[in-house]
Structure to design on (132 residues):
């Protein structure tokens, strides 16, 4: 039995094969259309090999489908080690949800005349005073 590198490779290969068959193309015809060796096309469709992004885009373009359509059903847990949870620092968690954390560094400050300055203006002023 052939070794399947991941569930993702198998699913992606199945989707490529289905798109190719809808066009009534052989694997050799797809290979010629996208400039990828036919042995690689066979490996991709069988799920024995995972392609890189460049090859995926070339195959999708040749089949006149979007790369997104081909990869849409893939999930992180389908890849080797894909069940690993990503841990973001606390300050980035809010930004990811669109709830940016309010820090004093990002708040405008009042200058001596009561006008507000941005942190960038403060940094520029400090560099100017230091002669930077």
């Amino acid at each position: 039995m052939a070794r399947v590198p991941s569930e993702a490779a198998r699913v992606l290969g199945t989707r490529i094969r289905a798109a190719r068959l809808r066009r009534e193309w052989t694997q050799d015809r797809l290979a010629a259309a996208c400039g990828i060796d036919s042995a690689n096309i066979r490996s991709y469709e069988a799920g024995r090999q995972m392609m890189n992004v460049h090859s995926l885009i070339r195959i999708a373009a040749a089949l006149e489908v979007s790369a997104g359509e081909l990869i849409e059903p893939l999930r992180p847990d389908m890849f080797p080690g894909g069940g690993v949870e990503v841990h973001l620092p606390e300050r980035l968690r809010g930004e990811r949800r669109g709830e940016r954390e309010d820090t004093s560094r990002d708040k405008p400050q009042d200058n001596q005349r009561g006008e507000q300055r941005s942190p960038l203006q403060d940094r520029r002023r400090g560099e100017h005073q230091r002669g930077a």
